[in-house]
Specification:
Length: about 300
């Protein structure tokens, strides 16, 4: 019986404290926004720096670096980007060969440094690890040890007449070789085990095949290969968001069946109120380097 009285006394005392707290007078805060003409940077959305961090000198003209090892410019403390707004995301693509220069030995120091640098520049890191780039150059090929393993033949280089999603063109190695899912899938799995949930990692692109990892020919992959490559991401990135390119129905639907993946495609998203002011959307396909970029939006 004594225990009940002790409990009742504690409950009354605790409730009394809550009652006194609730009676404190409310404080009214008045906020009067001041009109500005700056670009508002919301974390996780908006502009990104590409292969660069805030404050870096950008590429000149119509060229850019992609997939090569991350290089760090001398930083003078100024985070502003010349002729461009500040960004909250640093987007980098690094080819597989630079992340696993030797079989089973991963260059985590490169990713660690990129995460630290992004944090120090008021950004988070968005990352893609493509299997290879376009052409026959060695600096954008698969790792040298994997090339030695599968041979020099590059019968999957795309024909000059354009891209094809029906004949496997766009592949520099055969993804149906079981060693591709084994080794490329392994580097993605290890990446997830090490960095999933890192507070400075914004998201990871779910790339599996094709030049720059953009999914050319994904529609003709066997079900076994498709699942193995997608699962390397979805099984190991449970906290960090994954972003898929809009490649083909089978690959995208399977990715969605495994995780709440996002979509990545080049487009402009505008509010309904802005639509009447849109005068044109231009796809500059004459610019070398892509079949659909850059995209321009003209607003009155």
């Amino acid at each position: 019986m004594r225990n009940k009285y002790v409990f009742l006394y504690f409950l009354l005392e605790f409730t009394g404290e809550l009652f006194l707290f609730a009676q404190e007078p409310a404080v009214t805060v008045i906020v009067k926004p001041v009109e500005i003409y700056d670009v508002l940077n919301n974390p996780g959305i908006g502009f990104t720096t590409f292969q660069r961090f805030n404050g870096d000198t950008l590429n000149k003209g119509l060229i850019w670096t992609e997939g090569l090892p991350i290089k760090y410019q001398k930083f003078n403390g100024n985070l502003k980007n010349k002729d461009y707004p500040m960004t909250s995301i640093a987007y980098f693509r690094v080819y597989w060969k630079y992340l696993e220069p030797e079989i089973g030995k991963f260059n985590w120091a490169m990713i660690d440094s990129a995460l630290i640098t992004a944090h120090n520049r008021n950004q988070t890191l968005m990352l893609r690890v493509p299997p290879y780039g376009e052409g026959t150059k060695t600096d954008n090929d698969v790792p040298y040890w994997y090339r030695a393993m599968v041979g020099d033949c590059q019968e999957w280089i795309p024909a000059n007449e354009g891209f094809s999603f029906e004949k496997g063109e766009g592949w520099r190695v055969d993804p149906e070789d079981p060693r591709y899912a084994q080794y490329y899938g392994r580097v993605i799995s290890e990446l997830g085990k090490r960095y999933d949930g890192h507070p400075d990692l914004e998201s990871v692109d779910l790339s599996i095949v094709g030049h720059w990892g953009e999914g050319k020919g994904a529609s003709i992959l066997s079900e076994k290969t498709r699942k193995a490559l997608v699962n390397a991401y979805t099984d190991n990135f449970k906290k960090t968001p994954l972003i898929m390119l809009l490649t083909d129905v089978k690959t995208n639907m399977y990715g969605l069946s495994q995780a709440n993946v996002g979509w990545r495609i080049d487009y402009f998203l505008v509010s309904k109120g802005l639509v009447p002011r849109i005068r044109d959307v231009i796809i500059s396909d004459e610019v070398p380097g892509s079949d659909h970029c850059p995209v321009s939006l003209i607003i009155e």
